[in-house]
Write a structure and sequence with these properties.
There is one protein chain. This protein is α+β, with helices and mostly antiparallel strands and about 450 residues long. It has 3 domains: about 150 residues, BirA Bifunctional Protein, domain 2 (2-Layer Sandwich), CATH 3.30.930.30; about 100 residues, no CATH class; about 160 residues, no CATH class. The chain is about 50% helix and about 10% strand. It is built from 14 helices and 8 strands. β6 and β7 form a beta hairpin. α10 crosses α14. The longest helix is centred in the last third of the chain and has 51 residues.
């Protein structure tokens, strides 16, 4: 019985090859073979150099460098020699026509297992190995089972439940614990479907939302601002192109178009919200302190949340708006402590660490005293003192977390608010009734 799994290698290819070919795990290198590779005894540098030469020849040195496959056998079912033979045969059947592969059998555990490492770039045509979602089920697993049966080994007829969620399950589950790129795109698709008359209108609405649309490829794809393209056929049920077409065609003729976005009901109200938002940032162009920046960013996210932001917000902004409570707490902290610069923030963090250390030190001594031979009344008093110290230190931990997040995200927050200020300052005075469009980010 053999279990298989495969995953990409994006860095440290040499280190990965050296681990796979470790003489201590492969009977001093006897259980190492190469497919389309010459591997001298105990020389991990030779296959590494050959793989990199292939990448250089086709000018594809970056991205995913290799794919690492593991094939594990049940304890005592296969000898090291038989396991290695099966691994080499599997590598040749799957990848031997186009790719360079290292096959090594490890015997340092109770379960003998093969490591199969293939170069991501083909030495034949330079094309990179592509692993679609169906490749594992339709090729790797079926081929592994067939070879195992050929040599009299058992196979797994039904796979057990996985401890880890698959990629689609993580992004398509409902309800969503927090906004993701996929969940926000599904919301946008729902809005576009409710407002669209046909597929052309649907894609036009997505374009107005800030998406890029690719319809001339084999599979239609959409790209939200700041992200790459997502193919519709990979979306969950109800959101593929065919499902979207059926949803649009299935709408009642009396169906009223759904309002896509905006707290305004007409052009006059839109003009009011647009002017108010623009003036807010235009008047604060020169206010660049840390606390002012977070106050302005909080206003920006509140506008997105209330749908008073004068253009359709990007996926990134809506994900940030979901963290509005955190940014509000950070803004209150910066205002209360009068923190205007990064130096002020570092000084405050240092004072927090000292307070936390002092309180934890007191707790440590009290806990030691509780374990000594004392009366129940004394132990009760000490326990209450420890609980009181816990109450005092808990908000300090929260503030330390907020400070660490500010230090990490302040550059992004400053860039977002500065862009809004510059765009607002450059916006000319609009006449009532004129549609306002904000300039696109470079």
């Amino acid at each position: 019985m053999a279990q298989t799994k495969i995953w990409p290698v994006s860095d440290h290819l040499a280190r990965c090859i050296r681990y796979v070919m470790n003489p201590a795990k492969t009977l001093d290198g006897k259980l190492v073979s190469g497919v389309n590779l010459f591997i001298p005894p105990r020389d991990w540098q030779a296959p590494t150099n050959q793989m990199f030469k292939t990448k250089e020849r086709f000018n594809k040195p970056g991205g995913r460098l290799a794919y690492h496959m593991d094939q594990s056998f049940a304890e005592g079912e296969a000898t090291p020699e038989l396991a290695h033979k099966i691994g080499v045969e599997l590598a040749r059947e799957l990848f031997g026509d186009k790719y360079e592969v290292v096959v090594a059998t490890h015997v340092d555990t109770n379960c003998v297992h093969n490591h199969i490492l293939l170069n991501s770039v083909s030495f034949v045509d330079g094309k990179k190995f592509h692993q679609p979602n169906s490749f594992y089920e339709n090729h790797i697993r079926k081929m592994s089972d067939a070879i195992c049966q050929k040599y009299g080994l058992s196979i797994i007829k039904e796979a057990g439940p996985s401890r880890c969620e698959s990629y689609p399950a993580q992004h398509h589950r409902e309800p969503h614990p927090s906004p993701t790129v996929h969940s926000i795109m599904y919301e946008d698709i729902d809005r576009a479907v409710d407002a669209a008359r046909d597929m052309d209108d649907f894609y036009h609405i997505l374009t107005e939302m800030g998406y890029r649309v690719k319809r001339d490829a084999a599979h239609p794809a959409i790209s939200p601002e700041g992200h790459g393209f997502f193919r519709l056929y990979k979306f969950k049920k109800g959101y593929t192109e065919e499902d979207i077409r059926r949803r649009i065609e299935g709408k009642s003729k009396n169906h009223m178009p759904y309002k896509i976005y905006g707290a305004w009901n007409n052009q006059k109200e839109f003009h009011f919200y647009q002017v108010r938002f623009t003036r807010y940032f235009a008047r604060r162009l020169t206010m660049r302190s840390l606390r002012a920046t977070y106050i302005h960013y909080r206003y920006l996210l509140r506008s997105v949340q209330r749908q008073t932001y004068p253009r359709y917000p990007s996926v990134g902004l809506r994900k940030e708006a979901a963290k509005l409570d955190r940014y509000s707490a950070q803004a209150r902290l910066l205002v209360r402590e009068k923190i205007d610069t990064k130096e002020d923030l570092q000084s405050f963090q240092k004072s927090l660490d000292e307070k936390i250390h002092t309180l934890n030190k007191k707790k440590w001594y009290l806990k030691r005293k509780v374990k000594t031979n004392i009366t129940d009344e004394e132990r009760q008093v000490l326990t209450e003192e420890i609980d009181e110290l816990e109450k005092q230190v808990r908000p300090l931990y929260r503030e330390r977390f907020l400070c660490a997040d500010i230090a990490k995200r302040s550059g992004v927050v400053d860039a977002e608010t500065r862009w809004e200020k510059v765009a607002a300052a450059q916006q000319p005075t609009q006449e009532r009734g004129h549609t306002w469009t904000q300039p696109q980010k470079q």
